[in-house]
Structures are given as C-alpha cells and as structure tokens.
Write a structure and sequence with these properties.
This protein is mainly alpha-helical and 339 residues long. It has 13 helices and two strands, in the order αβααβαααααααααα. The protein has a two-stranded antiparallel ribbon with strand order 1-2.
C-alpha cells in the first residue's frame, strides 16, 4: 500500500468515531522515506475472506522467491529490494487492553490476532533474508526487527487469552469447502479433513451440527460457516508454524563494525532477550537433530517447523560444527562486547 495513501486513509479512519478498531502505522524504520507499508490493516479488516487469504497467506513465500532470485542475479546482493526491510506496517491502535476488551467486537479481536501473527511472520522472513548481508545499516535494522518480533509476540500472547481458539488463515479449510446447504456440505468437510490425517472424534448420537462444533471459528459471523481443523495451545504452538529463522540468522550476533562516518550514530544493541530468542530457535533445531530416530517422529509432530525436512538431510557432526559452536562463540562475543 502506498505510504502517502495509507497515511491519509489512517488519518481519516482515526477521526471516524463510528470505527472502534482503528488503524495505526507501526514500526516504520525509514520514516518519511518509506515508500509503502506491507502488512496492512486494510488487507484484513472488513475484507471478504477469500480476498484477504489470497493477499496475506502467500506474501512471505513470494518475497522469499523474489529475494532468492535477486541474490542469484546479483551475487548475493539485495539492493533492489532492501527498502522493504525498513517499511512500516499498518496495524491497529493499541490502547489499554481492558478498554479494548470492552470496546472491540469478537471478530475484531480475531482480526487483531491475524494482523499480529502475519506481521511477525513477515519480520521473521525479512530477518532470514537480509541476515546474509554484512552492511552495518542492514545489521542495525535487523536488530530492530528482531526486537519488533519480540514486542509483537508479547502483544499477541495477551490477545490470545481473549481468542483462545485463534487459528491463522492457512490452517483453516478453504472457504470453497463451506456452504450453507446443510448436512451434506458439513459431512463433506469432515471427510475432507479426515483424509488429511486429522483425528475427528464423532459421537455415536446427536446431530451432525454438534459433531462439527469443534471446527467452527470462535466468533462466527451470521451466514458465514467456517470450520477449524487444528487447535493451538498458545503462542508457543503458533511459533512452531511461523516462518523459519534459518541458522544463518545467527550472524546478527556478530559484533558490528561501524565504518568511520557511522561512528557518531547511536548503535542499537542486542539485549539478553534478543540473543535468547535466536538461541532458542537454534536449540529447537538441535533438539530435533540429536533426537534418536525412534523419538523423532513424535517430536516432529510436536514442533512441526518449516525446516525439519532440511535438517534431516544434514549430518549431526556437520550441523554441530557449522552452527552450534558458531552460535556459542557469537553469543559470547556479543555479551562480552556489551560489558
């Protein structure tokens, strides 16, 4: 969304007293020079479901493909797309949570969770993509984006208490499976999700409507039947389904070497929470890699992350040598530099 248009639209909607769930620009690192906002309130709020799914779900994958092609063509550079790293996102006005609980409608709480979830995904994708670059300004923005992720996750964790059955768009069956034609369509949904290996506990008696209640969105709009096939127990479960922070993102831990003209700039430094977040991601990968094959299947089901297949193809000794030891050294050097 063009930043100038977004700014005007935000001002207009913030002045509208009829709107309780108001938009607001967040985390714009480039200020006025940012050309666009990426994740946008206007892609989700009061938008038809098929349209918002089609714009939000593929965003990270499309960028991943684009940056891969760019690196291949330029020998590893991302000069033509590096403006995206600093672009802000249009989310919502965050006031006192108790006030929001009283004022927001249930579906607006769900929209807020979706906005937070996909913004976290977007920032994680940016961190993975740009962490291969060594420029000091990129390094500083990556640290800020990592801090942004931690903040957004903290906000999402609070919101999930009010939307305990929240399920992101891609884990919901396609709306084309849903209709209001009654029992036959609902039975079709049950058969569809069963074929994907999802266990469904049917009761021996009772109408079909009661048997599929587990799949309904926590806040169902009238004449808009939606069904959920999965359930997430809080933020930790959701994090396993987010975009993978690949191992090379540990390069963020490397001490920054400022060039002479940048020495007067205030350096953004990693804090303990930031380092711990990256190391926790690595720890999950190590846990999966070093687990015996007999236990790995259950562990894979528990932490089904996006890079488990790639880790299966890496030798344990190679993984430890290339990643774990490097991570410890980088973490230590970062801590020592702070002191």
């Amino acid at each position: 969304m063009d930043m100038e248009d977004a700014t005007e639209k935000i001002k207009e909607d913030q002045a509208n007293d009829e709107i309780s769930f108001k938009p607001e620009l967040w985390m714009n690192l480039d200020n006025e020079s940012a050309p666009i906002s990426v994740i946008s309130y206007y892609q989700i709020h009061n938008v038809e479901e098929m349209k918002r799914r089609s714009t939000i779900i593929p965003l990270c994958s499309m960028f991943n493909l684009m940056q891969s092609c760019e690196k291949r063509l330029t020998g590893g550079g991302l000069e033509d797309v590096d403006g995206l790293l600093g672009c802000g996102v249009v989310l919502f006005q965050l006031t006192d949570l108790e006030i929001m609980t009283r004022e927001l409608r249930p579906e607006e709480f769900e929209e807020a969770c979706n906005l937070l979830y996909y913004t976290i995904n977007w920032f994680r994708e940016l961190i993975t993509s740009f962490s291969t670059l060594k420029e000091s300004d990129i390094h500083q923005k990556l640290i800020l984006r990592l801090k942004n992720v931690l903040l957004l996750e903290a906000v999402l964790a609070k919101f999930l208490k009010h939307v305990p059955l929240f399920v992101p768009f891609e884990f919901q069956p396609q709306p084309s499976l849903m209709s209001s034609k009654g029992t036959s369509s609902r039975a079709h949904v049950l058969d569809a999700v069963s074929s994907q290996g999802v266990q469904i506990h049917r009761s021996s008696s009772g109408p079909l409507d009661s048997q599929v209640d587990v799949f309904k969105a926590p806040f169902k709009k009238e004449n808009n039947n939606r069904f959920h096939t999965v359930h997430f127990d809080g933020l930790d479960d959701l994090r396993h389904q987010m975009r993978t922070l690949e191992v090379h993102t540990l390069s963020i831990l490397r001490p920054l070497e400022l060039v002479e003209e940048e020495e007067d700039k205030e350096e953004v430094k990693l804090e303990y929470e930031d380092i711990n977040y990256l190391l926790r991601e690595l720890d999950q990968k190590i846990e999966f890699k070093l687990t015996s094959s007999g236990k790995r299947k259950s562990l894979e089901e528990k932490i089904a992350s996006n890079d488990t297949f790639l880790m299966q193809k890496t030798e344990v000794s190679q993984f430890m040598k290339e990643h774990y030891i490097q991570a410890i050294l980088l973490a230590r050097s970062s801590e020592c530099r702070k002191h």
